[in-house]
Amino acid sequence: MNRHATSAAISGRGILRRALCALALLLTACGNTQSAYLDDGGGLSLSVVREQSYLGGPWHSTLISAATPRCQKRHRLEGLSEDGFQLKVFRPEPGVYILNSGKRWYVTELRNCEFQTYKSPPPFPGEAIGRFEAASQVLAFIADKPAKR
Both 69 and 26 in a single domain? Predict the structure, then answer.
């Protein structure tokens, strides 16, 4: 091999190596994680975590119910809208929450960190206390204002 061919081969490998490194960085560094938290006092809390593996990829949402120190469990929230994410929170009684997003309904009981999906909406989900909402790539819990008496 002549000197020019050897130099070109080495240069080509360097470009390929740099391109592969840049591609790997793009694929691994572009994901996103969002989280929001609702503290109900007495060690009872709900958290929602949304994770995106790569830019433009699907969002995966998880509810974390906790009754510190007794239990803490993660529950996968399937089929939620990726655009305009909103999860409404109702409280029918202390420590019990009913969650709604579109046609999806869930109930979580914090004393034992239990979780269940409803097949149909409950007749009365309880007092509306707020919602988990993603706006401008930021997930937050937004409390409802209490009704004036």
Answer: no
Tokens linked to 136: 């401008």
pLDDT in tens, 19-67: 544 444 444 455 678 888 788 778 888 999 988 888 878 888 999 998 8
DSSP E strands, 3-148: 32-41, 44-52, 59-67, 71-77, 86-93, 96-101, 104-109, 114-118, 127-135, 138-143
Share of the chain above pLDDT 90, in %: 29
CB 97 within 8 A of CB 111: no
Q: Find tokens 């572009």 and name the residue.
A: 30
- Dist CA 5 CA 76 (whole Å): 56
| Domains contained in the chain, number | 2
